[in-house]
């Protein structure tokens, strides 16, 4: 007998705001955010998601919505979902939750997405010192392919994946996060070597009640006020998984997530039609609404058996990601190398960030010779499924970190010229 169709456990109406959904969304991590649904291990279930901003970004030629976006809205997540075994016993702290991605894609009737760069004064990004203004490209989907009116002449197969998936933290783990991140936020950015070569922005984002969504918890109640002021933001990845942005986490992949609370309380969101390694423009995937069809397994005692703590407590662990077999097949590649020397010619010691930045800038400069603006190329490199990887360290009188950034299609002799960029996407 054929297996039953996936059970829809979190439906989304894209015509409604995030806080208007029948299964209310959340955009913070906290153990006391109640589950909105319950699944049994081995059951195939479907989760629908809004884009990470909760529908704030519009399908148009203006980047004003990106420029003025209030980043405290990030990320609008579907869940939490409580996971039980076949006997009805919930996942327990110390277990490992295996989550298999069986299928995924854009929501029917909402087959579009966007890639953007934030304004220097509102979030910035990896190359903000070179691209300080907000930009946006809209993408439309045709099956596995994406194309953009703002970057004409380009059409590529995406590698769809969730940018964010994780379990709820325990109170103890939440307090660890808040303490270490608040300590980081107090540091003067000018004292850090990294801030010499990338745009300075807040080093960490402590809890804030602004734009806080806590699922079923009613805003304005004492419970809401307490949780909103201690719940963790969703921007960084942490021990619970979270904002991992792994471009190959597509069909057939499995995520092994540590369980910190009873039921695991699985949440997911930030769907991407496609993304390049590093998501270098920061809002740099093709962001979209979408769905996941998932299947879970509880591995009892799996945290201790399979995960090694990398810190002072048993909670300092990280998930394991098993990448599936699905990937676009390309046969021609260009490789752009970056070394640990900044734009001013200063040598850095084994600085992977400087090397990666140089590799991306080399790729942007080269591809812009084929009729594209550098703003267009920056957005393209951030969202198409290219590879960005550490290659090697060389031992010489001055050590240099090397990175490679690989792209296909724009080889010497390629003669197509693309003129212009749609008004409003370069600057606002």
UniProtKB/TrEMBL annotation:
A GO term, aspect molecular function: hydrolase activity, acting on carbon-nitrogen (but not peptide) bonds, in linear amides
Domain of life, source organism: Eukaryota
Source organism phylogeny: Eukaryota, Viridiplantae, Streptophyta, Embryophyta, Tracheophyta
SUPFAM superfamilies: Acetamidase/Formamidase-like (SSF141130)
Protein name, per record: Formamidase
